[in-house]
Amino acid sequence: MKLLKTNGPQEEDEINLWRKMLEGNTSCYEQLVGRTYGLLFQYGCRFSSDREMLKDCIQDVFLEIWEKRNVLNPQIPPRAYLLASVRRRIHRVMQRNRVQTTDNIEKSLSDFNVEFSAEYLFIQSEQDQQLAKRITCVLNELPRRQQEAIFLRFFNDLERDEIADIMDIHPQSVSNLLQSAFRTIKMQWKIIVSLIHILAN
Amino acid sequence: MVFERYYFQMDRYNNFMLEDFIWDAYFRKWVLHPTRETETVWNLWLEKNPDKMDLVLRAAGIVKAVGPANVPFSESEKQLAVKSIVSKLNSSAEKNPSRSTAWFPKFWLQTAAVIVLMAGLGWIFWTWNQQKQLDYQRLVAHADVPLIEKVNTTGIAQTIRLSDGSAVKLSPGGKISFSSENKLKREVYLSGEAFFDITADPERPFFVYANEVVTKVLGTSFIVRSYPAEKEISVLVKTGKVAVFTRKDPAAVQKQRSKELTGVIIEPNQQIVILRESEKMTKSLVPSPQIIANGTAGYQFEFDDVPASEVFATLRKAYGIEIRYDSDRMNDCPVTAQLTDLPLYEKLDLVCKAINATYERTDDSIIIKGNGCGPTAKP
User: Fold this and answer.
1) Which residues form the RNA polymerase sigma factor 70 region 4 type domain (chain A) (predicted)?
2) Beta-ladder partners of B367
3) Domain count of chain A?
């Protein structure tokens, strides 16, 4: 699949904006913030429901990037870098708050909460609606770290190495997470398909 | 060909099952973020594998349907957050400039921002004003019939004859537009000042559109003054009656259609002044009333020992202005005066002085105040 991988116009645009922004172009900076903000916010919401805290974190990340623009690499796609920075910042803030409030000590730092759902608008047949519904159930049952890897890989089109950077783990660990997730999905799939087949008859 | 390479590798999809498509990154990329390249590659593959069409459509439907539930986040909320970041960027750079030269571009950037903001506000105000004020250009542009335009670029008033026999005396700098073809309606669009002498035709009212104001007449002579730069529009009537209303009047359409003259009616030697901004109408007597034409017979203003009441009655008739007085008292006051060639108000000044009275102008009439000249009259 690597051979098929090409940068879409979206990604190229973002790399261009990133490069010009690092040169000090404020208009490109604003455009880049505008283009990536939604993604960063949605990703941040997987870790906390405190919207204002999330906005502060995203803002701090962008302001820090502006300050450090002379030392940042202009050749990298900015998406993964931004996601990784926002994730780190959110965890730091949450850790600090936790020390202050001394609650939720059991809760893991990397708690990633995602709820997969199906929109039946796109599906004609009832059989496929059932399939889509089952898929969401399987995804929602996956361990959180597998969910996060799946979320980044299949719903945000990020590469293995980028996911490793964002989740701050070894690339091989990303592969392992994705493989484990797929074993479950494939296994469940067989059950789902045969189940639906039986139900349909 | 760059696509040949991709197409060659596309063979691996030939034996794909539904679930394989659903979890294939390149397939998902095509379904979720199609580009020209993915469109071409996948369509080529589908042409070669038409039996897979149904499977691909099913997989695409499921890929589109299943996704992480997003938290509600409105575009306006996002814009606000982005603006907040960008604004902080400017202020933080001002506080601790990383380079000494950075101050100047920042200063100019902010100056430029202020200028752009001011220009923007100016533009908004201007367009708002434009929308608010209906000007000649807009009215002419929205006319439903082809119009002829006459512009008086000379230094003296020009007379324009309309097809119905009416005459328009256009003051220097004025413009009028009218249709020469439409026989049903008599309509003129005016910018500037003009004297209208309209031939009577009760079946076809004559309309003058001057910015926000509509003047409707059946047959009369009057002046409309409506310069684009002036804040007021005025209509002065010389003979006959005209109805005046504004375009924004809720009943404007009905007033326009009516066979009668409805709206604010003005009569000879009355004028109406409309403030364009508020569309407030003020009716008053013209500053120098003129004698209304009276067929062939002129008016006599040579009075020799006639009662003052008779003098006022003559003036009322001659100028078409309501003059109110106490006829009993004024019958006792004999007046001898030569008033020909004097303007109305000077005539009134002289008469009132002679009979020890005063007069007052209201918006549509003149009231004479005096105690009369009989033995009971007090000075």
Assistant:
1) 134-183
2) B324, B360
3) 2
Terminus-to-terminus CA distance in chain A, angstroms?
A: 37
Please check whether residues B9 and B38 belong to one and the same domain: yes
pLDDT tens-place string over residues B81-104? 999 998 887 665 544 444 444 445
**Which residues of A fall within a CB distance of 8 Å from B26?**
1, 4-5
Q: Is residue A106 part of a domain?
A: no
Rg (CA), chain B: 39
Q: How far apart are CA B255 and CA B301, in angstroms?
A: 40
Last residue of a domain, one of B115, B132, B149: B132
DSSP state of A8: -
Cβ within 8 Å of B, A 114-173: 114-125, 128-129, 131-132, 135-136, 139, 151, 153-155, 157
Q: In this structure, are A96 and A124 located in the same domain? A: no
Q: Contact, A168 vs A145, CB < 8 A?
A: no
Q: Do B89 and A66 touch (CB under 8 A)?
A: yes
Other residues' Cβ atoms within 10 Å of the Cβ of residue B149:
12
Q: Is residue A109 part of a domain?
A: no
Asked if ipTM goes beyond 0.85, one says no
Domain span including residue B308: 302-370
| CATH assignment of the domain containing A9 | 1.10.1740
Q: How confident is the model at residue A83 (pLDDT cuts 50, 70, 90)?
A: very high
In a domain, B292, yes or no: no
pLDDT band at A56 (very low <50, low <70, confident <90, very high): very high
Distance, CA of B216 to CA of B261 (rounded, Å): 7
Look at residue B377 and tell me if it is in a domain. Answer: no
Nearest Cα of chain B lies from the Cα of A152 at a distance, in angstroms, of: 11
- The range of the structural domain enclosing residue A9 comes to 2-101
**Interface residues from chain B to A (CB-CB < 8 Å):** 5-6, 9, 18-19, 22-23, 25-26, 28-29, 32-33, 35, 37, 58, 60-62, 64-71, 73, 78-79, 81-82, 84-86, 88-90, 92-93, 98, 109
pLDDT of residue A187 exceeding 50: yes
A43: which residues sit within 8 A by CB, 6+ positions away? A83, A86, A87, A156
Domain count, chain B: 4
A:B CB pairs within 8 Å: 123
CATH of the domain at B338: 3.55.50.30
Structure confidence by residue, pLDDT tens digits, A149-159? 999 999 988 98
- Is residue A8 within 8 angstroms of chain B, CB to CB? yes
Whole-model pTM above 0.80?
A: no
Q: Are A7 and A92 in the same domain?
A: yes
B108 vs A contacts (CB less than 8 Å): none
- List, for residues B142-181, the tens digit of each pLDDT value: 777 778 888 888 888 888 888 888 888 888 888 888 887 6
pLDDT tens-place string over residues A116-162: 888 877 787 888 888 888 899 999 999 999 999 999 999 988 989 99
CB contact under 8 Å between A4 and B9, yes or no, is yes
Radius of gyration (C-alpha) of chain A in whole angstroms: 19
- Residues of chain A found within 8 Å of residue B65, distances taken between Cβ atoms: 118-123, 129, 132
pLDDT digits (tens, 9 = 90+) for B110-138: 666 666 666 666 666 555 554 445 677 77
Pick the last residue of a domain from A71, A101, A131: A101
B89 is written with which tokens? 């960027």
Mutation target vs B (from A39, A40, A116, A122; most B CBs, 10 A cutoff): A122
Is A110 a member of any domain? no
Of the partner residues B18, B23, B81, the one whose CB lies closest to the CB of residue A154 = B23
The whole-chain average pLDDT of chain B stands at 79
Query: Does A144 reside within a domain?
Result: yes
What chain A residue is nearest to B92 in terms of C-alpha separation? Answer: A63
Listed residues A68, A101, A134: the one ending a domain:
A101
